[in-house]
Amino acid sequence: MKRLNLAILISGRGSNMEALLHAAEDPDYPARPILVASNRPDAKGLDTASSAGIATAAIDHKAFGKDREAFERALDAELEKAGTEIIALAGFMRVLTPWFVGKWEGRMINIHPSLLPKYRGLHTHQRAIEAGDAEGGCSVHWVSAGVDEGRVIAQARVPILPGDTEDTLAARVLVEEHKLYPEALAMACQQILNSGRKVEFPES
Ligand code: GAR
């Protein structure tokens, strides 16, 4: 069975990355991790990936000042060198330029800690609690030009309980993230494999 070469982009802890690496230990999983890259050289997830025997790259965005695209061109060179066929953003905390998104659209997915389209951006759990929502959750979506705006692949829901704080809710959602992301990545791989090199989205 064809497995897509998977690059995972992280900025920190990398617990979602770890969940993906774990799922991909199954030889029947449709993605094979070939690279873990971070914009932060001190990201803990880089050590976890190295220990698992996965190639890593650290491209420090600070070295590029305000030039986001120059940072992305350096990142893209690493992705191409590794033979990347699908990108999973896993706690990658850089907003991507239209150039990078345009290049990888239909081959790049992200996990976001809210029930999209609710709470794009940051502080999602705090905002859900303040709004009095009964449920929080997470979404895996295709990455498109608008931040956290691409088509949703899959979502998981958790209750918001009385007395929840941002931290308690984040912890409850994270458990679901680790289950959802491997499933959604497998679905994305199947879509790519079914449609050729990348998924084309109808004009909306
Ligand atoms: C996860 O909760 C992920 O959903 C979130 O950052 C955390 C990363 O944790 N992503 C975003 O907020 C993206 N906008 P991890 O490094 O342990 O996977």
Unreliable spans are none
State the assembly state of the protein chains. Answer: single chain
Q: What's the rounded overall pLDDT mean?
A: 96
Write out the distinct hetero groups bound to the structure: glycinamide ribonucleotide
What is the count of DSSP helices, taking H or I runs of 4+ residues?
A: 6
* Largest sheet data: 7 strands, mixed
Describe the protein:
Helix 1 (15-23) crosses helix 6 (166-195). This protein is an alpha/beta fold and 204 residues long. The longest helix is centred in the C-terminal third of the chain and has 30 residues, at 166-195. It has six helices and seven strands, in the order βαβαβαβαβαββα. It has a seven-stranded mixed sheet, sandwiched between helices. Glycinamide ribonucleotide binds at residues 10, 12-16, 90-91, 111-113, 138, 174, 177.
Kindly list the characteristics that best describe this protein.
204 residues, alpha/beta, 7-stranded mixed beta sheet, binds glycinamide ribonucleotide
State the gist of this model.
The protein is of the alpha/beta class. Helices cover 37% and strands 21% of the residues. The chain has helices spanning 15-23, 44-51, 68-82, 98-104, 124-130, 166-195; strands at 4-10, 31-38, 56-58, 86-89, 108-112, 135-142, 152-159.
Describe the secondary-structure layout.
Layout: E1 4-10, H1 15-23, E2 31-38, H2 44-51, E3 56-58, H3 68-82, E4 86-89, H4 98-104, E5 108-112, H5 124-130, E6 135-142, E7 152-159, H6 166-195
Parallel strand pairs: 1-2, 1-4, 2-3, 4-5
Antiparallel strand pairs: 5-6, 6-7
Helix pairs in contact: 1-6
The structure holds glycinamide ribonucleotide.
